[in-house]
Amino acid sequence: IENLEKFREAMGVMQHHDAVTGTEKQLVANDYARLLYENLVNNNIVAANSIYKWANEKNSTTKLIVSSCLELNISSCPYTENSRQFTLIIYNPQSQPVSTYVRLPVNGSSYEVFDWAEDISILSQIVPIPKRVLQIPGRESKATNELVFRVNDLPPLGYKVYEVTEKPNTYEETPS
Amino acid sequence: ESTNFIGGDLYTITVDESGHIAVQYNNQNDMNFVQSFHYYEGAEGNNKVFENRSSGAYIFRPKTSEIHDFVYEGDYSIVKGPLVEEIHQNVNQWISQVVRVYKQEERIEFEWLIGPIPVEDKIGKEVVTKYTSNLNSDGEFYTDSNGRETLKRKRDYRPTWNLKLYEPIAGNYYPVTTKMYLKDKNKPLKLSVFTDRSQGGTSMKDGELELMLHRRLLNDDAFGVGEALNEVAYNTGLVVRGIHYVYGGNTKNLDAFTLKEKKLMLEQTLRPTILVIPFMQKNIDNWR
Fold this sequence. Notes:
The structure holds two protein chains of two kinds. By secondary structure, chain A is α+β, with helices and mostly antiparallel strands. Chain A is 31% helix and 28% strand. Chain A has helices at residues 2-13, 17-21, 26-54, 78-81, 131-134; strands at 67-68, 85-91, 98-106, 111-115, 120-122, 124-128, 145-154, 159-166. In chain A, strands 2-8-4-5 form a four-stranded antiparallel beta sheet, with no helix packed on it. In chain A, strands 3-7-6 form a three-stranded antiparallel beta sheet, with no helix packed on it. Helices cover 8% and strands 40% of the residues of chain B. By secondary structure, chain B is mostly beta strands. The model of chain B has no long low-confidence stretch (mean pLDDT 93). Strand 1 of chain A pairs antiparallel with strand 20 (273-278) of chain B, so a sheet runs across the interface.
């Protein structure tokens, strides 16, 4: 509740007209970014608790660690690009079902994406991240590719779970 | 396989001789558009009198009504796969974009990357993108303004007084919260652009939609902030990246068209949240 309350307060600050339009002084803009970042990260705990409850695992002894990818806009996510295997929870904030594409920054060149709800592996594609994105000042990411797959029928205000596993390269690189 | 276009079954999207992105609708031969980048030079002044007001954080005020073109000096490459087809285009040293069409989706995505805007020449610049279609919009276009009500805009016109614009560019710019579009006067054709953030937009010529993407200016506009809109990080100007969804076509079946547009707008603004958890053994049945 405390984390959520702080998040609400931050969102209240963000409704100031300068925050909405971007007419704040640079130092204030930096402070707004700090406020939003801290509260988004703190609220991973709230998200983890909610998901554990939905998944009937609230009595589990394993602590659920949930991370959000806040830099997907620059094709960067330390949690997906530094792991060979990870689980994704994709939550739909809309009150209607949604089918959409997901793009995740990764390091490898071949992945298996497994849909837990359907119990099947689904089609995915690797797309190179454009060079200019890799050169964005301040971008600290090892990802060179993006993993793309389609999420079908995300339930309204609900989630689906996908497991992503890197596959060994199935081709040999030629010297040229 | 060597190829020079993307677009799946719906579109033929190519890079034309001038470097612009040309989009031809396959099933509606009478509709096409070209996407291009341009910029305005920001007005500079001492802010003592109205005429000397600078372009800044509060106001967009180009120095002249002249829009500047970029010389497309970059290259492009094409990526095609089972789910998505993309054109990766470098326009110059500081502008690039990815044009993208997903399978099972009718929208065309323009993912632009602008910056750091060079200002070594001491000229503030305001970069825009233009979608120039063959639609006869007759000076009219539509913006969703405050996100609640879409309003019809008419170039060089106000509904309640006789207008004479001394600054036609700034005077025709309107707020776009999520959506901007134009319609053909004679045919049931429509072209819409959905933004991922609030932007300013206009239609300075018939068939044209123009949206402001990134601004770097060197003077305060004296409306209160006391700073020039010259944001710096990592010792250089900011780099911005964002997406426009472009959706258009025949509106004979207006209900279905409008429904698709509403879904697109919601997809842009209420995107799914992605949470990552490290791999661990779980009771899959519970999670299901």
